[in-house]
Amino acid sequence: MRLIIQILLIFGTFCLNAQVNFDLRVSKKKLAINERLRVDFVMNENGDDFTPPSFSQFNLIAGPNQSISNSWINGKRTFSKTYTYFLSPKKKGTYKIGSAKITFKDKIYKTLPVSINVINATNKPSKTSSVEYLADENIQLVAEISKIDPYLNEAISITYKLYFRDPIKISDAREIKSPKFEDFWTNQIDIPQLKVKLGSYKGESYNEVLWKKTVLYPQKTGQLVIEPLTINLVVEIPTKQRDFFGNVIYKQVSRSVNAGKRVISVKDLPKVNQPESFTGAVGEFNLDFLVNKRSLKSSESFVATVKVSGQGNLKLFDLPKIKVPNSFELFEPEYNEKVITDIQGMNGNVKNVYTVIPNYPGKYPIPKIEFTYFDPKKELYQTLTSSEHIIDVYGDISSSKIASIKNNSTNNQKMNFGNNQNLMFIKLKSNFHSINKIEFWQKKYFWILYALPLIILPIISFLRKIFSNRKTNNNLILLRKRNKLAIKFLGNAKKQIGNKSKFYDSLEKALNNYLKAKLQIETGDMQKDLIAELLKESKVKIQTVELFLKVIKNCEMARYSPINQVKMEEDYNSAIDLIEFIDKEL
Fold first, then answer.
1. Does domain 278-397 have CATH number 2.60.40.740?
2. Which of 145-149, 172-176, 437-441, 450-454 has the lowest mean pLDDT?
3. Burial category of 204 from C-beta neighbours within 10 Å (exposed 0-12, middle 13-18, buried 19 and up)
4. What's the sign of the alpha-carbon dihedral 270, 275, 279, 282?
5. pLDDT tens digit sequence for 249-282
6. Which CATH architecture best describes the domain 472-585?
7. Distance (Å, rounded) from C-alpha 567 to C-alpha 509?
8. Taking the complete model, does pTM exceed 0.90, yes or no?
9. Which of 53, 139, 358, 389 could disulfide-link 366, Cβ–Cβ 3.0 to 4.6 Å?
């Protein structure tokens, strides 16, 4: 019987320790209308998806501030996770703070509601003097967004600022959770050094630290959510104790603060009266269409430059293309960009530089080009038109372009003597034969023919060896060329992260050229299933083959589904890993 009681006690203790608690705690249940209320939601496990109740009858002063405490004392673990809010009542009366929700191990836990009685104002509102109260009330992390309702591809900025004020000090700060900017093109602005300066928050003086600045270009319309930034702080708070020299003794506490979740409402660009020349440019821009020569000889080259400059999403649209006469050779343009991104967005210019070669003399027009952008300030489409260029080509047509002249050959004519066979031409040369006939084997031609195979066979063997080496060298050259193309397209893909179509096009070309070089196959054999079989036959690990199929599938799906920058970076890193694995295993 004693053994059964001991087992029940041990089991009861275990169940008690394993119990999950989620409580709502308030600093007071009765407060004056000019006092502040602290509300804590405390859980003894690390839950997720916290949903606070509605505070409709209160003004939110600060929060939620998140803090975590985890300690081991005498082998016993103590853990608590707290979400703290500071509120002020809007008017007198009795109000209920509803239930909060949190999830732990796929189970939802709720707090019990608490009633708060708000009475008339007091002359001296009471304040909690606890260390935690001082830390939470005097620290704020704020996310300032330049515009919460931008247009698609319009630049906005989000600035995170940390505010704190006396009597507390901050000795250390560390970012523990960074915000995720899904469906945004992002560029973080460098902050060389964190500096403390005097600022204000909600009309009160605070010490201000500029923590992070990021420029965002929304790539999707609708409600886009920005997850909160969370910082862990080591806070020094004065106590009522003093040291031997009379200096105030500070107590260090750890506190986590976050800026809260933010929602951006992104508006679509107007579809009505959208010009055909619009390629996605949003901002304020200028257009330049320049040529470096207006008069030149045939078969000489000149350079045509299309440049767009200004402020806006310079890296996220296509430049207009030029058209030239059929007798001109137009080469693929060289893309250049000089773009600086600051808190206002991208500034600078992007341009395509074309090399053009005219083949025939004459005067040829190069038509004007159009470039359309959307101005979010005026909320209108603006179309820029360049001037037309006349190219004067002089000189003779090259001999290779002139039709060859056939030479008239002279036919040998014979004299016609009719049917008279008695009249013949006089023979001018005699044809004598030796009386003593020489046998064929005695002639020098016999010995030449006899020795010829002995001479030809070594020559043929030597030539075959040369051609074999040349073929091998050609294969090596082809492999090197394809490897260089793979590296080139892989570099292009890295530059185009953020531009979905160009990025995946370059990534797919890089993998195709690399696999053609590595497996020694031609373009006609570039089939996903065939390559997978070739890799398996080459004793490549099945994990590597699956990684190849995954990357190719992502490249194919990217054309029909929205892809963010983070996904592009993951696919780029997967392609790098794939190439490294194949190099090691083949």
1. yes
2. 437-441
3. exposed
4. negative
5. 878 888 888 888 889 999 999 999 899 999 999 9
6. Up-down Bundle (1.20)
7. 18
8. no
9. 389
